[in-house]
Amino acid sequence: MLQIYIPLVTFAIAATISPGGATSLATASGLQFGYIRSLPLIFGIATALALLVAVSGTGLATIIVAWPSIALAMKIVGSAYLLWLAFLIARAGTPKDIDAAAKPIGFIAGAMLLIINPKAWAMALGVAGSFSALANDPIVLATILAVTFAVCATLSLTVWALLGSFLARTLKTDWQWTAVNYFLAALLILSIATFWR
Fold first, then answer.
1. Lowest mean pLDDT among 40-44, 153-157, 165-169, 187-191
2. What Rg do the C-alpha atoms of the chain give, in angstroms?
3. Count of other CB atoms within 10 angstroms of residue 53
4. Of the candidates 162, 181, 183, which has an alpha carbon nearest to the alpha carbon of residue 173?
5. Which residue, 8, 45, 72, 141, is the most exposed by fewest CB within 10 angstroms?
């Protein structure tokens, strides 16, 4: 079992730490609000990813992936949602420009990023199929996949949020902040292309 579990952990780390929409959001949140205030976003993304792989482990995700109309609707809604988040990031300015009452992207918004992402569903379904030998019982398999991806996503997104926090300490001028915000917004927009492959 350990011989199968190590590749699962390796895959989960690679899938969650590689640049994409979730990592761009975590970095932007760490940049603007710091690591601690970014935790709800991180937990929202990690929880949603755990839910996706758990649902896939029980076989329910095949329904979502099999219906082209559902997949198309998810692509449209997901693309619009990411464009809106990119717009917010691009307009963020510097932390001194942010109202003290401003709140970082939270748990639900982070979770929605994954739930409406058809690529995330397809990846989760692939993971469930590839690592089905970990358990004969679908509930046990779903639990193993969910815990593994929740832990790996939390750790990976923590790295990105801390990177954002570190980057915030190096930015001195308004134009530097603007450039970084636009860069992170552009990365988020580029991640939309993965929906349409």
1. 187-191
2. 17
3. 31
4. 181
5. 72
109: enclosing H helix or E strand: helix 107-115
Task: For 43-78, write each residue's pLDDT tens digit.
Answer: 999 999 999 999 887 776 666 656 777 767 777 887
Contact 173, 78 (CB under 8 A): no
> What secondary structure, in 3-state letters, does 153-180 show?
HHHHHHHHHHHHHHHHHHCCCHHHHHHH
Q: In this structure, what token pair is assigned to residue 147?
A: 């815990």
Output the pLDDT for position 65: 59
Q: Tell me, what's the pLDDT at 64?
A: 63
pLDDT confidence of 151, banded at 50, 70, 90?
very high
Residues 6+ apart with CB under 8 A from 12: 127, 148, 149, 152, 153
First-to-last C-alpha distance (Å) of the chain: 34
Two structure tokens written together for 26: 């975590």
Write out the two tokens for 156: 């990976």
Residue 99 has pLDDT above 60, yes or no: no
pLDDT of residue 125: 81
**Do residues 39 and 103 make contact, with C-beta atoms less than 8 angstroms apart?**
no
